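Fold tokens
===========
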Amino acid sequence: MDAKLRALADETRREILGLVWGGERTAGYISDRFDMSRPAVSQHLSVLLECNLVAVRRDGTRRLYMANHQAIADLRNELETFWDASLRRLKIDAEAVRRKRRR
């Protein structure tokens, strides 16, 4: 989970993820959307690939990148578990404060 969160902390990588969310995109298509070198975009893609947030498929000489929706759903579920536990603790604490005020 840590690697995924670190990857998503970068604005460029979030933008790349948005570009590949709805379907496959070539590295050239992705690179053309940014004001940086292709090698720099390639580095961002490598980070996303390493933490499994995107997948790649070869089509001849082209590499097609797509969002890994399942990995993102799994990350979301992990985060929701964290938030659910935190919200339960907050609720218990708030109810305890309310009981003390009623006394």
Summary: The mean pLDDT is 92. The CA atoms of residues 19 and 82 lie 28 Å apart.
